[in-house]
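Query structure, 492 tokens:
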């Protein structure tokens, strides 16, 4: 666990005395970019700065562990605008991470085993199927900051959220609310709505949604803490995302956990966009429960094996509401005597036997994380996203509006502590055309309603030169989009 490292943030406070998640880097990214530019005697936006940043990047070789899509293979590509053999600018690890090259090998190992020995594969080999999930648990501990007994790899994310809520949400007449962000991911919103309905509760009264202040895009920690302070006595569960899927805001999990628990609430997090992206210390923070998926920053492929965390303090007190045979202790599981010996903690929440083919892809990716370490990845990520922010601000900020028609806003918080890899961009013109033009040029990112384009340079496989190339493609995409909009308005 990261807890052993010297500068791990047990309860780190900043100069204002606020609980923070991780120490800030010694030099802000914009200053690093300027320093390098001055060493090279060039402008900070010069390509040489990107190349120097790549040269100095000790993690750059991890890109070789992944398949990077080529321009020619992307469905919306316009081959008149790009070199078909070049690698695409893949900035969509926030949605689906790239494929580690070892996935195929690991899948083949299990397919071979199946072909050659059939059911004997349950017990032998690198990943005996019966304990397939458990064979890779150790690789997940550093990523979420928990011990093996606190983590289970099972199901999909929303399924895990439901299973956890069934056990953690026990409303009483006095304490019956679930607190969450107003614009939580739809699946979380629906899961919570349906859990409330399951208890016969009135959704309007029991689903406590926190909105950003008027005119603001992201939530202020002080506002979250105020709601907890004022309404905590009636809140049974606080369920926040660790990092918000749309705005890219990273929530202060230790502060929310501490405040919630001080009022007697149970506190859980959906870590879909946080896991593999920022450093997590679930055990030290005392988080009650959490769940995550593995297809985004964890690169395990679409529909990959999800994860769940239950703090060890609950191992013997909070039990699964729904039980299956994989929640039964392994030593007696196959006695088949129908006398449940429940595994304490989250592993008792497992219901079915693990899907070994999904274990393989996650295994391949987690091995890379083990080598790279979350601490080093986060350090690079801060600089990589900081460089992207610097370049966007340089080319498109409001004060350039006189010369450029389109203003690009970054709605993701600018404080390093409040964001991960992703930046969400909003525009003064409709995003439909901009997005189409980006896709034609081999920039893989996504758009989300109402008006955001999400771009996420990922430290495991993206380079600083990717950011540099992205900016040039972005300038050209915006120019084309502006022309299209003018043509469209003349035609109508
Ligand atoms: C924050 C969040 N929650 C839930 C989900 C749904 O995940 P799943 O389809 O794996 O249940 C997603 C998917 O992207 C997500 O981003």
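Result returned for the query:
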């Amino acid at each position: 666990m990261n807890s052993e490292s010297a500068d791990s943030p047990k309860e780190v406070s900043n100069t204002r005395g606020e609980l923070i998640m991780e120490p800030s880097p010694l030099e802000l990214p914009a200053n690093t970019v300027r320093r390098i530019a001055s060493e090279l005697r060039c402008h900070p936006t010069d390509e040489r700065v990107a190349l120097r940043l790549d040269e100095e990047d000790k993690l750059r070789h991890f890109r070789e562990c992944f398949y990077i899509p080529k321009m020619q293979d992307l469905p919306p590509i316009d081959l008149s605008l790009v070199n078909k053999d070049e690698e695409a600018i893949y900035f969509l690890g926030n949605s689906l991470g790239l494929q580690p090259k070892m996935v195929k090998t690991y899948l083949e190992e299990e397919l071979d085993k199946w072909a050659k020995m059939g059911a004997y594969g349950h017990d032998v080999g690198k990943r005996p199927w019966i304990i397939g999930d458990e064979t890779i648990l150790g690789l997940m501990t550093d990523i979420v900051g928990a011990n093996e007994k606190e983590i289970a790899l099972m199901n999909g994310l929303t399924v895990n959220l439901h299973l956890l809520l069934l056990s953690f949400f026990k409303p009483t007449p006095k304490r019956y609310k679930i607190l969450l962000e107003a614009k939580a991911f739809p699946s979380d919103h629906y899961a919570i709505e349906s859990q409330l309905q399951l208890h016969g509760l009135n959704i309007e009264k029991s689903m406590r949604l926190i909105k950003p202040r008027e005119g603001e895009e992201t939530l202020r920690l002080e506002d979250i803490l105020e709601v907890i302070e004022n309404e905590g006595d009636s809140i049974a569960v606080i369920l926040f995302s660790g990092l918000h899927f749309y705005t890219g805001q990273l929530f202060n999990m230790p502060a929310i956990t501490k405040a919630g628990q001080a009022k007697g609430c149970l506190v859980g997090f959906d870590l879909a966009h946080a896991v593999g992206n920022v450093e997590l210390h679930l055990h030290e923070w005392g988080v009650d429960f959490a769940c995550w998926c593995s297809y985004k920053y964890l690169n395990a492929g679409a529909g990959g094996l999800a994860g769940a965390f239950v703090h060890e303090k609950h191992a013997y007190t909070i039990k699964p509401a729904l039980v299956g045979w994989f929640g039964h202790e392994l030593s007696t599981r196959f006695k088949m005597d129908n006398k449940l010996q429940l595994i304490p903690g989250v592993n008792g929440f497992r219901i079915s036997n693990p899907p070994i083919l999904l274990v393989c892809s996650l295994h391949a990716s987690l091995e890379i994380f083990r080598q790279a370490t979350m601490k080093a990845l986060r350090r690079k990520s801060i600089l990589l996203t900081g460089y992207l922010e610097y370049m966007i601000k340089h080319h498109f900020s409001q004060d350039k509006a006189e010369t450029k028609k389109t203003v690009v806003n970054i709605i993701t918080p600018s404080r390093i502590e409040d964001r991960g890899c992703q930046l969400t961009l909003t525009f003064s013109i409709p995003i439909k055309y901009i997005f189409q033009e980006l896709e034609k040029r081999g920039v893989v990112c996504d758009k989300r309603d109402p008006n955001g384009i999400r771009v996420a340079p990922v430290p495991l496989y993206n380079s600083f030169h990717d950011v540099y190339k992205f900016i040039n493609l972005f300038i050209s995409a915006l120019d084309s989009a502006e022309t299209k909009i003018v043509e469209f308005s003349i035609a109508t």
